[in-house]
Each structure stands twice: as structure tokens, then as C-alpha cells.
Amino acid sequence: MEPKKTRAKGAGRKPLQPEDRAKSMSIRLTAAQHKKFLELGGIAWLRGQIDKAENGD
């Protein structure tokens, strides 16, 4: 019987630093709020708003 083939040692993507890892979050919106969120640009809009708030712009 042949030995099981495994990936090479050190192969694969290296893990990100803890401060660079994305966090998952869930929110509850009404149908109207969800529609508005998508109209505003969805997650790209939200990230932009957070970045602006952090910079004080």
C-alpha cells in the first residue's frame, strides 16, 4: 500500500497577522433599510463611511 500523499511542508497561503484579519458581523435591517443600504452601495459604502469616521473627515 502506498503512503498517503500530503502537501509539502510550508505549502499554502500564510496566515494574516491578527490585526489584519477581517471580523464577521451580522446586523438586522427592515426590508426598507436593506433596500436603502443596497442603494447606497452596500458593503463598499459602509466601509467608506467607517474609514471617513476614523479619519475625522
Note down, in words, how this protein is organized.
Residues 1-12 have a biased composition (Basic residues). Residues 1-24 are annotated as: Disordered. It comes from Methylovulum psychrotolerans. This is Plasmid mobilization relaxosome protein MobC. With 57 residues, this protein is mostly helical. The chain has a domain at 29-57. The protein is 42% helix and 0% strand. The protein has two helices and no strands. Helix 1 (31-40) crosses helix 2. The chain is elongated and about 60 Å long. It starts with 30 loop residues before the first helix and ends with a helix.
Chain-wise SSE layout:
Elements: H1 31-40, H2 42-55
Helix pairs in contact: 1-2
Largest sheet: none
Radius of gyration: 20 Å
The helix/strand class is mainly alpha
Separation, N- and C-terminal Cα atoms: 65 Å
Number of helices: 2
Relative strand content: under 5%
Number of strands: 0
Question: Mean of residue pLDDT?
Answer: 90
String of helices and strands: HH
Low-confidence region ranges: none
User: What's the helical proportion of residues?
Assistant: 40-55%
Shape: elongated
Biased composition (Basic residues): 1-12
Region (Disordered): 1-24
Protein name: Plasmid mobilization relaxosome protein MobC
Q: What are the main properties of this structure?
A:
57 residues; mainly alpha; 0% strand; Plasmid mobilization relaxosome protein MobC
